[in-house]
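Late entry, evening session. Most of the bench is empty. Finally got around to the prediction I had been postponing all week. Sequence below, unchanged from the version circulated by S.P.
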Amino acid sequence: MGKEIERKFLLKSNDWKPLTSSSHRIQQGYLNSDPLRTVRIRIIDDKGVLTIKGKNEGISRLEFEYDIPIADAQALIKLCEKPLIDKVRNLVKVDSHTWEIDEFAGANEGLVLAEVEIESEDSHVDLPSWIGEEVSHDTRYYNPNLLRIR
């Protein structure tokens, strides 16, 4: 059984950009964005991914993720709630953690969020100087809610 534990932050500078090791365009939609369970389709570059997540319990939740054929992802994303989320995910390694920094486009243009997955809710993470306010518990920044807030 999969479990995701992550912290989410706004950024206070672009000093992370030179540290980027790779970037990937993500188009993402929700077949179900109910807070009790979400079903997400992603097209990451040319790869399809189906993700099912349970309800947030603090900064933890169940997560099940499966690669699917790109043709299936392209067909399923047409069934998703609108608007779709369009972003570029940048990977930045700092110490033992890989930060995922999402630069949003479309309806969420201008929003930049950094996420870091951790082993347990009480794991310590040294925050880089470019990390700003923590928004892990602010539901406005949950991806399914980005369909509604911008």
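Two things to note before I forget:
The domain at 3-149 is CATH 2.40.320.10 (Hypothetical Protein Pfu-838710-001).
The chain has a mean pLDDT of 93.
Will write this up properly tomorrow.
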